[in-house]
Every structure is written in structure tokens, then in C-alpha cells.
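Board notes (copied after class):
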Amino acid sequence: MRARLARAAGEHELLDVAYRTIDTELGPLLLAATPQGLVRVAFAVEGHEKVLIDLADRVGPRVLHAPAQLDLAAHQIDEYLHGDRHRFDLTLDLRLASGSFRHSVLTHLQTLAYGSTASYAAVAVAAGSPKAVRAVGTACARNPLPVVVPCHRVVRSDGTMGQYVGGPVAKQTLLQLESSGAAA
């Protein structure tokens, strides 16, 4: 019944946000999509209920657990976390990244090669504001699509990891995954 309701809501454009959770090596991830594309990936430490409330406030109140609508995203994240995918081929909805600078940062992050890293300063330069190093940090911290938009590839100028929305263990796990599979 629930699956039929979710399918009908999507077909008749009565759904603002479809969501599901997936179990991963990083813990449970919440995936959410609008009709325009994947809009949110959230770690458990962010509080999935809190994220769903925020989505209802910022995107629209019609939020429904509709796992089938996120099968492609779930599959690609699973492939990535198992080292079988180096780039995501998903339509993204970046509406939660407010401001043109944050959009520039997130767009640049998508060009960082698998297995590589860039400093916050280098990303600031690439995004067109060389002095905006702290703003790059904020854009990464507020990235609505961690893992898919690889803010984990941004490190401090001295090479140390820096902060990550999923926590230091998640960032280290992703960096190790990519460094071990970069040569493949």
C-alpha cells in the first residue's frame, strides 16, 4: 500500500521530497530527492528526523518515504563505497546550497578527481575568491550532498584532514577508500 501511494504521488507530482535510508560502511545514510534530482545525503550524526523536518521546511511539506525513487542513487553510492564507481552519474538538485559562492564551490568539488585532494585555499582560488578560504570550509560543512559531491576531498593546506559533516572517521574512511582504489 505504501509503495503504491509513493508511486502514485510521484506520478501525479504530489511529492516534494522522496526519501529512504541505506545501511553503509559509514553508518545509515538518508537519501532524499525532489523531482529535479538528489537533494540531500545525510549522515546519522546529523539526525535523520531533523533533516526530514528541514527538508519539509525548505523544500516542501510533502515528504514521503519512497525508497524505489532513490534506487539509482542507493545503487551508485553502494558501488562507490565498494570501490566499483569513481564518479556519480546522478541528477542533482543544489537548491539547499544557498548563495552563488557555495554553488561555485560545490560545482568545483565535482571536478576533483577520485583519489585526489585539494586544499581549502586551492578550492577558494578555483571558485573565484582566493581570500574566501573560511567560506570554502563553510560551504563544505553545509554541503547538502556529502559523498556524492566530494567535500571529503578537501583538506587543510598542511595536508591534515580538517572537519567533515560525517565525522573524522567517515572522512578518513572515504579518503582511504579512494587512495587504495585510485590506481585501479
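Comment from the instructor: The two ends are 44 Å apart (CA to CA). The longest helix spans residues 168-181.
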